[in-house]
From TrEMBL:
PANTHER family: ARGININE/DIAMINOPIMELATE/ORNITHINE DECARBOXYLASE, ORNITHINE DECARBOXYLASE. Transmembrane segments: none annotated. This is ornithine decarboxylase. Pathway: Amine and polyamine biosynthesis; putrescine biosynthesis via L-ornithine pathway; putrescine from L-ornithine: step 1/1. One of its GO terms (molecular function) is ornithine decarboxylase activity. One of its GO terms (cellular component) is cytoplasm. The keyword Lipoprotein does not apply. Keywords: Phosphoprotein, Polyamine biosynthesis, Pyridoxal phosphate. The active site is at 382 (proton donor).
Amino acid sequence: MDKFRKCFLSFFCDRLNTEMEAAAFSVDDFGFTFLEEGFSARDVVEQKINESSMSDDKDAFFVADLGDVLKKHLRWVRAMPRVTPFYAVKCNNSRAVVMTLASLGAGFDCASKTEIEMVRSLGVDPSRIIYANPCKQLSQIKYAAAQKVQMMTFDSEVELMKVARCHNDAKLVLRIATDDSKAVCRLSVKFGATLKASRLLLEQAKDLGLDVIGVSFHVGSGCTDSSTYVQAISDARCVFDMGAELGFNMTLLDIGGGFPGSEDVKLKFEEITGVINPALDKYFPADCGVRIIAEPGRYYVASAFMLAVNIIAKKVIMKEDPSSDDEDDGNYDRTLMYYVNDGVYGSFNCIQYDHAVVQPILHKKPKPDEHMFPCSIWGPTCDGLDRILEQCQLPDLQLGDWLLFDNMGAYTVAASSTFNGFERPDIHYVMSRSSWQVLQQIRTQGPPSLLEESCPSGMPACCGRESSLELPAKPCSARVL
């Protein structure tokens, strides 16, 4: 049996009786609609648009494919069998998403009382939650203690003092700083202890009688340099050694997030895991007794959500002195401003706070000879900052036409507001029947076996043949529907 198969069986068998104890949820609990064979989430978008064609009520809406979340989970298990995902709830706190991941046996990275409440309300055992916020309010530490959530991060003496005061059974994880200078969203400017400070914090924890069980780090959201993980894992090894010198039994490594959730990125998921796995084998071998977790957020949800917005207003800006050669050069005598019914105070907050770059997809297929004009796209609020795109090329669209945006699941619905009285878009959840069957199999039997011959004799039916559900190498990226 090769190394990969051994790793997978270790991942599965060691956790079968703990992390796979997921609650049994029905289709009604999830609130999704089944996709019939041959249909996709984009067909549902088309259906919703058609249903609105006879009405003035053309509100923006999401279609979210929970089957895509499932595929991402299977992809994770294949790529990093030693690393247990603890989903970062802050990325997208949609109940159906959290419920799907709870059914898959994932853990959860919670940053507040409200997130812990939500995850616990789904029957998730507190051992599957890490309170991964290094700056916690006293009352919320007490709430975590009452809920028996023990794992929590820290990076300062003050945090240690608060935990010592409020949570006698805490299992502490020291968060260390990383070089996240090449990440889209940097986090070490706010969180993380240096290696020098780590020793002092461990000594302080020892003096307070606190139990430090491991180390965590985060290379930044939207990591663009996989070598950052290697250095962070190496630094974590140093801190583990410091802990051992002080008498701590450190058994947990949390490698954080930074994993891409779509394919339109420079650094692909498998490129990152191809660097992480050897680093883990080098610094934390499989037989060292250290459990490894991660905090993926956008990885699970980005590509699962598509947003449909409607053009509610339009302005034509004519050039004051167009030249006669403008049209021949492709520079027309006008620019177009489109106003749509969702914006940066709503689902497109990801532009401001997550540095997202969005591209519109035309719902109506343009004619082969249709002119494209320089355009800008604006949200519906009265704020001049509510601009979705400063410049793009679109045809001469009309009121009531639709624009679609894919890869809209990460840091969109979770951070949207109702500023100016504009409501958040409805979310329509879908899942194929084959995905639902695989989800039920995982809930009751554990992950499907990657290779049937990996199963040792006597292993129960939990290692059955994998479903026909396929993992896409790359999601559809067509820009016109």
